[in-house]
Amino acid sequence: MTTIDNPTVPFTRPIPGHLLPGRKMVVKGAISPRSDRFSINLKCGSEDIAFHFNPRFGEQKIVRNSYISGKWGHEEISGGMPLVRGEHFEAQFECNEDNFSVELNGKHFCNYSYRIPIHKITHVNVDGDVTISQITFVDA
Question: How would residue 107 be classed by pLDDT, with cut points 50, 70 and 90?
């Protein structure tokens, strides 16, 4: 298990080790009372984004997508908006054989099928109106 404590947003850090089926990334933080949006991105180097997780409070949806070779893919937006401005949250991203399983505050929110193989993911990035207290990588 590896933990990143109180990183300053925006930030980008290498993921310790590799993402493999069974491994989890747990993000704990607080959403600004006036937050419009924030994003948690799992990146492949400096350009491609394997998983873009983007709560948008003005639109009341959480967009999931990938950015590959300079182009955004198809947005997935089902599931509504279980996160609340001004509140703490915990987001868990579990690597499965063919998708990420996402839990928000202990409840299953969605699955997101891999569009880039997970072994190519090298960095985690967080940006926007959010404060992160901890990111933990839990081994399988």
Answer: very high
Residues 85/34, Cβ–Cβ less than 8 Å: yes
* Sheet with 38-44, edge to edge strand ranges: 11-14, 123-128, 38-44, 48-56, 61-68, 71-72
The CATH number that applies at residue 70 is 2.60.120.200
Domain count within the chain: 1
Q: Coil, helix or strand for 72?
A: strand
Strand partners for 49: 43, 67
Q: Which residue has the tokens 């993921």?
A: 15
Write out pLDDT tens, residues 19-46: 999 999 999 999 999 999 999 999 998 8
Q: Please give the residue range of the domain that contains residue 85.
A: 2-138
